[in-house]
Structure formats: C-alpha cells, structure tokens
Design brief:
The N terminus is likely disordered. α12 packs antiparallel against α13, α12 packs parallel to α14 and α14 packs antiparallel against α15. The chain contains 27 helices and 22 strands. Helices cover about 40% and strands about 10% of the residues. It is an alpha/beta fold. A seven-stranded mixed sheet has the order 11-10-12-13-15-14-20, sandwiched between helices.
C-alpha cells in the first residue's frame, strides 16, 4: 500500500503523494485493528492480536526493505506487511475468521491466529521460487522471542553468499540481502534474544533488528523487564567503536517522529546492507491503543497519566499533526482519507466474512439434501428436528456441519443410512486435510520417495573405525552438494569431538565446515534460516542431552514450519547429534520419547552403527526434509566394513531391518541397545530360544511396510527394548505396532517393554548396569516369556 521510495530527490507532488499514502496505510491498519477487535468481542472470531500503536515505524522500515530481503518478526507487524503489499485488509480478516482457503488466507490457511505473517517461498512442486524477485517473510510463531534463532540463519546466508562459494541462484544477489527482525521490548528479556544478539555480533552478519518499545509486556512494565528499563542501554557493550566495523550499530528513535524514523531506517539499512554490520533500532515511545490483545483492556493496569500520554503521542495522531503543521495537506484532505479508510476496512471485512461463510453454507446445503432424503424415507421427528436446527444456524461452522451429520446416525430405527454414512466419510476425506495436511513433506522430494541403495563392498573393503566411515561419507557429500554446510560445537578445527569431520575444514574451508560457540538454540535457528534460503545445513549438537537447550526452537519453529504454512515454506535442516549409553548423567541420554512427543513434523532417525548413519545422511540430502540423526555414542571406535559407494548408499527410511530371524519372540529395538540385545540373543540360542530381532532404524517414519506385524504372525509374542524412560519411546512403538498396525490381533501373551529405570544413569560402569537394560536383563526377560509359554521346557529359576 505504501510507495517504495524515500523522500529525498523527488518532486514535491511525489513527496506529498508518498506522505499521504503512508498516512492512508497507517489509518487502514489501525481501523483493521479496531474492527478486528470488535469481531472477536461479538463472537465472529476467536482471538485477536493486532499491530495498533506500532504503525509509523513499520512504514519507515518498509521503505528500505528490498526484494530478496527476509523478515523474521512477530504478530505486531501488520502495517509493515500492508506497506510492502504482501498483505491485504481482506486477508487480515480471513485469518481472523480462520478461513482454510489458501487463496483467501495465504499466510497459514487458517491454521494460525491472525497477525502471524508469511510469504510463499516454494512453488507448487516444492521447488524454491526466485526469492530475489520478491519480498520475503519467514513464518511467524507465537512464542515470544522465538523468531530470533532463525533470524540469525537468514542473515548468515547473506554473509556466506557474499563469499561467492555457493550456488546463490534464486536466493541471493552477492549477499546484499538484509535479514530484518522485529521484537517487542518485553520479549528482549528472553534468553533467545541475548543468545542471538551475541551470535550475530560474533559473526558480523547483516541482521537488522527493530525493537518496538511500548514500555510494557502485557501488564508488566519495563522496570520489571529490562535493566535500566532500556534494551539499547543494556546493549551498549555491543556497540562498535568509532570507525570500527566489529560490533553493532545501535540507533534509538521515537516511534511517533515520521521524518526521523525514515532517516534512522535509511542509515540503518545502508550500513547493514553494504558493510554487513548488524544493527539494532530501538523504537521508543510507542503505544498500544487497544491493549495487548482481545483478552483484556490495558486500562486495567495503566494509570490515567499513562493513558493520557498514550492518547497524546499515538503515532497516527502525531503523523496527522506533522502533516498539518508542515502544510502538506489540509484538514479536509485528511478527513477525506480517514473516512475512505473506515469504509474500505468495513467493505473488506464484509467480503472476507462472506467468502468464509459461503464455503461452509455450501457444505451445509449438501448435508441438508442428504438429510432430506432420510426424512422422506423415515418421517422421523428427531431427524426433522435436527434438520431444522441445522437450517436455522445463522453462521455455521464446519464443526456444526459434521457434528449434525454424526448426530443423525445416533437416531434409532433410521432406514437406509448408507448414503449419509458415505456423505460423512466423503466430507471427512475432503475436509480433514484442510486442518492436517503438510505435517510432513508431501512433495516429490519427500524422504518417502527416496529408494534404497545398498552399501557396496568388494575384496578391497576392510574393517575400519566407524568414525572414519562417517568422515569419508561427509567428505563425499561436501564435494557433491555445493550448498551443503556443516557447523556446530567443535565441528571445525578439530573435526568434532569424535573426529567424524577430521580434516574436512582444512580441505573445504571454514565456509563449508566450521565451529560455533556453545549456543544450541541459535545453532538450530541458524540452520533453519540457512535452509529457508537455499542451503543444505547440517547443524551439530554435540550430545543429545544438550538438545534440550534447543527443544523450543525445534518444536515451535522447525517442526511446525511446513504445517503452519500449508507447504509454502520448508527448511530441510539436518540436526546431527549423538546419544544413548556412554558415561554419566549428561552423556548417556536417550530421551527419544521427548523427541517424538515434541517434534512431530521432524524425521527422527536412529542408526545402530556408522554405515547406517552415513546412509541416512545420504537419504536426507536426496530428499528435502527436516530431520534429527542420533548417532550411537559408543560406536565411533567400533570396527565396521567399509563400503565403496560413499555418498550414494542409503536405507529405505521407515523400513525396519531384521538382524536375526527366529520363531519364538519378536524383539524390537534401536540404536546402541541393539548390540546388547544381540549378545543376549546369542546366549538365548544356547537354550533353544530363537529371536526375530528387528531394528526399527527410524521412529518417524515407523515401519512403513508393517513388517513387525508380519513377524508377530509367526511368533505371537512381542518385546520392545530401549534405554529411554518407562513410558517413553517404547510406549510409542507399542502403540504403532499393536493399535495402528493391528498387531494386537496376533498376540498370545502380554506385550512387554524393557526400558531404563526412571532416573538418569549415574557415572561409571555400575551406574550403567543398574540403570539401563543389560545383557542379563534382556536374557531374563525373554527367557521368562518363553517359560510362561512352555514351563515344562524352560525350567531355569531366574528370580
């Protein structure tokens, strides 16, 4: 809606046109906030959070935001999105009503609350669009500060592209793109903010962060939020020295001062874009005219003095005053714009509501026709009442439509309900994807479409350390994929604590293989941002135990990205980590239950050895999916046979692997525990007990060919063994096998789980033995199952 030029070197007529256009944009944005709040309070929408009081600085920011740039912001930025023409007033209301039509609500297809913004980054086939020719916004999330980690990666991409060592087609023009962040003053109290501010300063990336400061975080004022009540004061130590490039440019400007805002943002963008100096713009003296959100009024926690000040210094009113004081327009001209803005928003709101309702009313008509056929057949009064009730609903929802159809089936003595059942099933089939599609990649580059390539061996293949297999495979991949980069804690100079990258930084350079400081959340966020901009990042978290530092970013951002954009954005970030049994409380973690219950939307792969792990990286790079690979900590020095087709061999991800075949018990496990179980199976064979030992290989996806149930049809007995806590991954596996895949029907005995105990493993060999499943535990558990099945044959007294 705003003109995309600055006020210097233009004619007066164009200057006036630009100013009035900016005024119109902030008025329309404010009116949308006011009307949107009313729509929530009158029950048409569920919740509203808007950008009121922050309009003017966003106009200034939009003037220097260029095509190719990226935004990583939050739910106050509606004026900015309007100003760059990536959001319409109708779309604001379509989001407010949760319209699932992506043509009407392109940000999230109704999945997110309103004011969570995004632009389309990929084509209908999942390939990247030319992002250098459009304005780009990564998809917002609600958790405060959650936009910061990915912002780092969006900025890092420009730094890397500027080196000229990567394929920048469709993603960058010489690394000139700025990564623009926005955040509220209170959210700067989050640890993620400080972690990313530090990381961006360390790397000197073109990150320009705006702090919208209205002096409150809901009801809690800045004196509780920030030292000295000012984030720019706190960050003075990050400010670059005079004439030096290292550090931040920090700019402070009042949010109601139109010309100074434009000047501040012009300066900020210039040095950030040209010199890759990170910039923080602290925009102060902003207001929240209708409070934080529709959950309550700010009049509950602000005194009269503060409310009077906010009314006086409302940025929209201050711009109006500035226009009149400088004779740019008359009162009549401004009044005309104001009246037009009110009418425009009202009309767009009505269009959005009609579009939303018309879809559902059409679906209701279809159901009513089906119900009418039943009524004609049965003359049932209860059915007639339901028909009339549904017909009378003035503003129906899809819940109403489906719920009424299901109520019909609960009426006794209805004749010929088959057409209605078909209608319900067809409706579910058509409607459920509106709410559930794209949890995982549905494009051709899904991991599900990558076919197995077996590792190849010849007479020259010999046994080498597992770490060397990983290293040799990464060597091949780094040469094969131009935009592949690997970074993380100790990944660069020493090649990783387990030497899986040894010598690769020296061979490929710091741009391709490098270290990062101890900051897990920003390492993950950096990977997300890089992936959004065309890189294939592998971000290393040294131990699975430390992934917890980044679990919020992984869960709220990475895992939901494809889903919350209905497939319009994807970030194929690979997290490389290592876990399972080793030594002590924080180096023996196997919290797979935490991962699967936090990270639906991310593929979770659990190799038992390094050939498997290498193959999984190969498969992931042939596809385009976010994933975590948990390498087995105690396997780097174990000998494995070396394949010669590095970079190519890969498993069929989601397919289980049979390590042993037997007729007595189906045993399911993964990771390091498999070596323990395998040794126990050797002992069991001495007692004529033969095990079907199955490695699941991945837990998301899980047993895509239902092979475990095929095993159960032979053995009729099931044991799941892992080293997670009780009720963790083993329970998930049981649910998959018994309930989803129908394995319950083939059991002759109680299914058993053998897991670690409920506390973390103490340090030392004894700590491991008394905490995690041992060979003895596995032997006794499996023997007792056979003893229960045939006590006359299996007579050992084990307890």
């Amino acid at each position: 809606m705003s003109e995309k030029f600055l006020t210097k070197s233009i004619t007066y007529d164009n200057f006036k046109k630009e100013v009035l256009n900016d005024y119109r944009t902030i008025l329309v944005s404010r009116e949308a906030s006011l009307v949107g709040r009313k729509e929530v309070l009158n029950g048409k929408a569920k919740f509203g959070i808007f950008g009121d009081g922050k309009e003017l600085p966003q106009i200034a920011m939009a003037k220097v935001f260029e095509k190719g740039d990226f935004r990583s912001g939050y739910y106050r930025d509606q004026t900015f999105m309007l100003a760059i023409n990536e959001l319409s007033i109708k779309e604001i209301f379509s989001a407010l009503y949760a319209n699932t039509d992506p043509n009407e609500e392109p940000m999230s297809g109704g999945r997110q609350m309103g004011s969570h913004f995004a632009t389309t980054l990929v084509n209908r086939d999942g390939s990247f669009r030319d992002l250098t020719k459009q304005y780009n916004s990564s998809s917002d999330i609600s958790p405060t500060g959650g936009q910061m980690p990915r912002l780092l990666g969006l900025a890092m991409a420009s730094k890397l592209y500027r080196t000229g060592k990567f394929n920048s087609k469709n993603h960058s023009i010489n690394g000139n793109e700025i990564a623009w962040g926005t955040i509220g003053n209170a959210s700067t109290s989050e640890g993620l903010f400080f972690e990313v501010i530090n990381a961006a300063g360390v790397h000197q990336v073109p990150m320009l962060i705006s702090v919208w400061d209205d002096e409150y975080g809901i009801s809690v004022d800045n004196s509780y939020q920030t030292t000295k009540s000012s984030i720019s004061e706190v960050l003075k130590g990050f400010k670059r020295d005079e004439g030096k490039l290292n550090g931040y440019e920090i700019i402070k400007v009042k949010g109601w001062d139109y010309p100074k805002l434009i000047s501040a943002y012009e300066h900020a963008a210039n040095i950030c874009r040209s010199k890759h100096i990170p910039v923080l713009v602290h925009v102060t003296e902003l207001t929240q005219p209708i409070g934080h959100s529709t959950s309550g009024s700010h009049e509950r926690y602000k005194d009269k003095k503060r409310l009077d000040w906010e009314r006086k210094y409302d940025c929209n009113l201050m711009m109006r005053k500035w226009i009149l004081d400088n004779g740019i327009a008359t009162v009549d001209e401004l009044s005309s714009i104001e009246n037009e803005s009110v009418k425009f928003v009202k009309d767009q709101k009505a269009l959005a509501w009609d579009s939303f309702q018309n879809q559902i009313k059409t679906e209701r008509i279809s159901l009513l026709k089906s119900m009418k056929m039943l009524i004609d057949d049965s003359k049932n009064n209860s059915l007639i009442n339901l028909y009339n009730e549904l017909s009378r609903i003035k503003e129906p929802t899809r819940k109403d439509v489906l719920s009424y159809s299901r109520k019909c089936l609960r009426i006794n003595n209805l004749l010929n309900v088959n057409p209605l059942i078909k209608w319900i099933n067809d409706y579910k089939l058509k409607t459920q994807p509106l709410f559930s599609s794209f949890l995982y990649n549905e494009y051709d580059h899904s991991i599900e479409n990558v076919q197995e390539v077996k590792p190849s061996f010849d007479e020259k293949s010999h046994m080498i350390d597992g770490r060397l297999i990983i290293k040799n495979n990464f060597d091949k991949l780094l040469n094969q994929y131009k935009n592949l980069i690997i970074f993380g804690e100790d990944s660069g100079k020493i090649g990783g604590v387990n030497q899986g990258l040894e010598g690769l930084q020296e061979k490929y350079g710091k741009e391709k293989v490098d270290d990062r400081g101890i900051r897990e959340a920003s390492i993950v966020g950096e990977g997300i941002g890089l992936a959004l901009r065309g890189f294939r990042p592998i971000a290393e978290i040294q131990y699975l135990d430390y992934l917890i530092f980044a679990i919020q970013t992984l869960s709220d951002d990475l895992a939901t990205l494809l889903y919350r954009t209905v497939g319009k954005q994807l970030a194929p970030l690979i997290i490389r980590t290592r876990g399972h049994r080793l030594e002590g409380i924080w180096h023996s973690g196997s919290p797979i239950g935490m991962l699967i219950n936090s990270l639906r939307g991310v593929r979770i792969l659990l190799p038992r050895n390094m050939v498997q792990a290498a193959g999984m990286y190969n498969a992931l790079l042939k596809s385009c999916e976010p994933a975590i690979v948990v390498e087995p900590l105690n396997a780097y020095r174990l000998k494995e046979k070396e394949p010669y087709n590095y970079g190519d061999f890969c498993p069929k991800v989601g397919k289980v692997d049979f390590l042993r075949t037997g007729e007595d018990i189906t045993v399911v496990s993964y990771g390091s525990t498999l070596r323990v179980v395998d040794k126990a199976c050797d002992l069991l064979e001495e007692y004529n007990i033969n095990i079907d030992l199955i490695d699941i290989q991945s837990i998301i996806p899980f047993d895509i060919d239902n092979d475990i149930v095929k095993s159960l049809k032979r053995t009729n007995k099931l044991v799941v063994i892992d080293e997670d806590y009780p009720g963790g991954a083993s329970s998930y596996i049981m649910n998959k096998i018994l309930e989803e895949n129908g394995g319950y029907n083939f059991l002759d005995s109680k299914p058993i789980t053998l897991t670690a105990v409920e506390h973390r493993p103490p340090y030392g060999s004894d700590g491991d033995y008394f905490t995690k499943p041992s060979i003895d535990d596995v032997f006794e558990t499996l023997y007792k199952i056979m003893q229960e099945y045939n006590p006359s044959k299996f007579k050992l007294r084990l307890s």
